[in-house]
Amino acid sequence: MSDHKEARPTMEEWAAYIRGEVASEQTDWMESLLLEDEEAFSHYMQAMDMEAQGLPLLTDPEGFVEQVMHQVEIPETTAKLSELKDKGRRWYEHRLFHYAIAACLTLIFLSAGWFDKLTPVQQQVDAHVSKGSYSDELVKVTTGWLDRMKP
Q1: Which is nearest to 51 in space by CA: 89, 82, 83, 20?
Q2: Band of residue 126 on the pLDDT scale cut at 50, 70, 90
Q3: Which residues contact 15 (CB under 8 A, 6 or more apart)?
Q4: What is the CA radius of gyration of the chain?
Q5: CA pair distance 61, 64, nearest whole angstrom
Q6: Three-class SS of residue 113?
Q7: Residue 51 Cα distances to 13, 38, 56, 62, 102, angstroms
Q8: Distance between CA atoms of 106 and 115, rounded to whole angstroms?
Q9: Would you say 4 and 28 are in contact if contact means Cβ atoms under 8 Å apart?
Q10: What is the pTM for the complete model shown?
Q11: pLDDT band at 137 (very low <50, low <70, confident <90, very high)
């Protein structure tokens, strides 16, 4: 066989590769060559046509495809699941982070007075201010309720 650092495989070497008669080091090099070189791939396809009569026929091609696809899918899904378990959620994906951002924005909007602009009529706001604050009214209602409960 030819030295793979200087020359490309011959048709006989491709035929030996197809039959599985090539050493593992040579096999790795030939497989990488198939992925990188179009001319090598065309020689491989020609050798495959020459060796087609000697190759076994598939009795159930659809079953073979299903079996291969099942074997390919299993490692991908297990790898994704293990990656998700190991990785966990990122800090910005946690629910608490979203609640904290919403609370901060609400406080900023309240302090800037943006919610004051949402009221339909300024007179209603002025009338409510003259009554007193909600906390004062809440204290009056609570103390009145407590006074009624005392004997």
Answers
A1: 20
A2: low
A3: 47, 50, 51
A4: 39
A5: 5
A6: coil
A7: 12, 20, 10, 23, 69
A8: 9
A9: no
A10: 0.41
A11: confident
